[in-house]
Design a protein that fits this description.
115 residues; mainly alpha; 434 Repressor (Amino-terminal Domain); 2 domains; 6 helices; Lambda_DNA-bd_dom_sf; HTH cro/C1-type domain-containing protein
Length: 115
């Protein structure tokens, strides 16, 4: 599952194996090995890949089909996470959107700095 997900994410991001390797400080050969299933990344590399593609490690490894890493807090039919009111929910959604934009800007800046 991991090789397929990695290759798909890389291609959807229009990155070459070499380009992805530069972003996460590994060789093109390593990326090729990961995508072919001949090599497995270490924990730190998995973290870098997840951050680069803004997905969870569980998604990369095929443990979930939910790429964003958001955990649903429903358990045995429970109601899940409760927010006090619509204003609180709107505020939390706005904060999350701002965080994701900032994270993407930082990823792009890091990518530019490594060129």
């Amino acid at each position: 599952m991991f090789p397929h997900r990695l290759k798909s994410l890389r291609k959807n991001s229009e990155l070459t194996q070499e380009g992805l390797g530069k972003l996460i400080d590994v060789s093109k050969v390593s990326i090729s090995g990961y995508e072919n299933g001949n090599r497995s990344p270490d924990t730190e590399t998995l973290k870098k890949l997840a951050d680069t593609f803004n997905v969870s490690i569980d998604f990369l490894l095929g443990r979930t089909d939910n790429p964003d890493g958001v955990v649903n807090i429903h358990f045995d039919g429970g109601k899940g996470l409760h927010v006090e009111d619509e204003d609180e929910e709107a505020y939390l959604r706005e904060q999350l959107a701002q965080y994701r934009k900032m994270k993407e800007r930082m990823r792009k800046r890091l990518e530019e700095d490594r060129k």
